[in-house]
Predict the structure.
Amino acid sequence: MSRIFINYRRQDSEGHVGRLYDHLATHFPKADIFMDVEALPPGVDFVDELEHAVTACEVFLAVIGPQWLDVTDEHGVRRLDQGNDFVRIEISLALKHNKLIIPVLVGGAKMPPPDRLPEDIAALARRSAFELSHKRFMADVMQLVNAIQRALPSRSCKASTSLEVLRRKEAALRDVRDDLVNAINSPLYRYRIDNRYFPVLGEGNADAKIMFIGESPGKFEAEQGKPFVGSSGEVLEEMLATINLRRQDVYLTNLLLDRPPDNREPTEEEVAFYAPFVERIIAIVQPAVIATLGRFAMSYLLAKLDLPEKNDKISRIHGKLIKARMDYGEIHILPLYHPAIVLYSAAQRDTLRKDFQQLKLFV
């Protein structure tokens, strides 16, 4: 998905935006720039698609020209006062999702006062604006480009580490596994022993940029001591292939590290017991992004980090990159549906595939 979203009104600033786009495209991949609602496929719910595009972006440019406030439709009704106005919808979504919004003033325009804006976008008036003047256009654009580059996370968001560091991380993960094997006070320890199951710590690159956290191991996973095998694992590998990754390129783990009876949902006691192990894994791997698979891992992590989305449902925020901070630095959280959803509803395959594309930023 696009990292830079350009919001504008054709009747007000189309020429300025075309010129701005051409210059931005010399500094950023064109695929990183979303400029036109006409690019949306026919037949889609445009509000849903716009929300997905806005939530996917890192920087939101609101281009404001001299007629921006007062453009009307054929009946003389101000466009900004209409609930189906694209410009208003996009800005409202960007504000709701706490995006970095940069008002870009063109054609000598001034920032609109809050009392002339609809209530849902009145906060736009408090954003610091950036002016593109006709005489200094090239110099102004370069300043804007620099500001955008500083705001965007790097593609990798994590420097490569040495072989020595990788080995140290692998050794640290082995220590966590040893502690898990010997955790006789685990609420699932007796069930593990009685059924001759293995604990399932995780698997993959100990220095991965991308970590996936699911719910809990299933029967096949517990029998093999490996996460995400069987049908769900096949779906996960299929989705990873869409962003040119393999299992060994990422780190896979779960919120519970032992299988609960009958694949039931995790209990509060179980989550409380295994959470410190998961937190140790995160601290060792230090991923740039954690993709939570399913509502349990999502709810736990968002609450742990005390993020504004902690009470949201997964149906609302799946596919949304959420900035957060760990002890080791900035990180992103990406709530995703669990791969098993495809086994019950084939129609969700496209949704999962689309949400996975967010991870391209970290490949």
Observations:
- The two ends are 13 Å apart (CA to CA).
- The first strand starts at residue 4 and ends at 7.
